[in-house]
Specification:
The chain is α+β, with helices and mostly antiparallel strands. The protein is built from 3 helices and 8 strands; from the N terminus they run αβββαββββαβ. About 25% of the residues are buried.
Length: about 200
């Protein structure tokens, strides 16, 4: 009789132990799921550069090119990291004819150079500017739009708008070249973003 009592007590202890183990592990799994959701929602947003005029890898409307108004497109900036002291924006065309690259000793044509843009900037309006204007490939401190020569291939060129978040202001004068800006940025890039648009001139 006593032996049966001990057996019952042992079985009861096992049942209680298994129940406690199950409850503990279920609770841990639920807590693990909750913490995962919390950490993913608290991640900071990445630096972003977009345009309401065209989407990434799409065609740039002609009004922003040499075939029409030749004004800069509107740009939107978001996700600037904490601690950013300035922004820099560079626009270039790496698809220029090889003959131009060889003659001028360049690997792309510079369409727009801006630096020391305030980090709180969220928009550069159409035909607008921000910060300090550097020189474009023609030596002018302004935007110049896509204008791929019709007589060379590829006839459709890519235009890269590159945004850099920096941990410093750049000690450069207005009219500094893209090369000057790139050298001054070395070791100071916190984050970067890119927007690429394409343009092909209509045959005459």
């Amino acid at each position: 009789m006593m032996r049966n009592t001990y057996v019952l007590i042992g079985i009861s202890a096992i049942i209680v132990g298994v129940g406690a183990w199950y409850a503990f592990n279920r609770s841990s799994m639920l807590l693990g799921d909750t913490s995962g959701i919390t950490s993913s929602s608290s991640e900071s947003m990445a630096l972003s550069l977009t345009s309401p005029a065209f989407s990434s890898s799409a065609s740039i409307p002609s009004q922003f090119t040499c075939d029409a108004e030749n004004v800069s497109p509107p740009l939107l900036i978001s996700g600037v990291p904490d601690g950013t002291k300035s922004l820099a924006l560079l626009m270039d065309d790496p698809d220029i004819p090889q003959v131009f690259k060889q003659e001028r000793g360049i690997d792309s044509f510079d369409h727009w150079t801006l630096f020391n843009i305030p980090p709180a900037t969220t928009e550069i309006a159409q035909s607008g500017s921000a910060g300090t204007a550097g020189a474009n490939g023609a030596g002018k401190n302004q935007y110049t739009g896509p204008c791929p020569p019709r007589e060379y291939e590829p006839s459709e060129h890519r235009y890269f708008f590159k945004l850099f978040a920096l941990d410093t202001m750049l000690d450069l004068p207005a009219g500094a070249s893209k090369a000057d800006v790139l050298r001054a940025m070395e070791g100071h890039v916190v984050a970067q973003a890119e927007l690429m648009g394409k343009y092909k001139r209509v045959a005459q």
